[in-house]
Amino acid sequence: MKATELAQRITAGGAPRVIDARSGFEFQRGHIPGAIHAPILKILLKRARLPEDKDSELVITCEHGPRALMAKRLMAIYGYRNTTLLDGHMLGWRRASLPLERQPF
User: In this predicted model, what pLDDT tens digit does every residue of 54-92 receive, in sequence order?
Assistant: First the structure.
């Protein structure tokens, strides 16, 4: 999914859930509004707070792509069937100057 499409859907209130597979530090520095923080290790150990509905639409991202792809594959093993990757990932999101949420350190 393209970043601009996701941003428009977030604004309109009909966005898929966003799964952010980056580290805690990266997530705190800025993430897509409403994103669920789910690092690879937590997904692997089934400790990430993923949506219960395995058919819900999900967009997975990380900084550059490899972690998001690993997360997508793990989630497929766990039964998630409606997942896609964010084109350009977080690097592309920031380059497009799209909104970020930040958490205090």
Answer: 999 999 999 999 999 999 999 999 999 999 999 999 999
Measure the CA–CA gap between 85 and 58, rounded to whole angstroms. Answer: 8
Quote the distance between the C-alpha of residue 26 and its chain's center.
12
Residue 19 CA to residue 86 CA, distance in Å, equals: 10
What domains appear along the chain, each with residue ranges and CATH number? 3-95 (3.40.250.10)
Q: Please, which residues bridge with residue 37 across strands?
A: 20
Amino acid at position 38, single letter: A
Residue with tokens 């900084």: 63
* pTM over 0.85, yes/no: yes
CA dist 59 and 25 (Å) reads: 20
Q: How far is 89 from 66, CA to CA, in rounded Å?
A: 10
**24-47 pLDDT per residue, tens:** 999 999 999 999 999 999 999 999
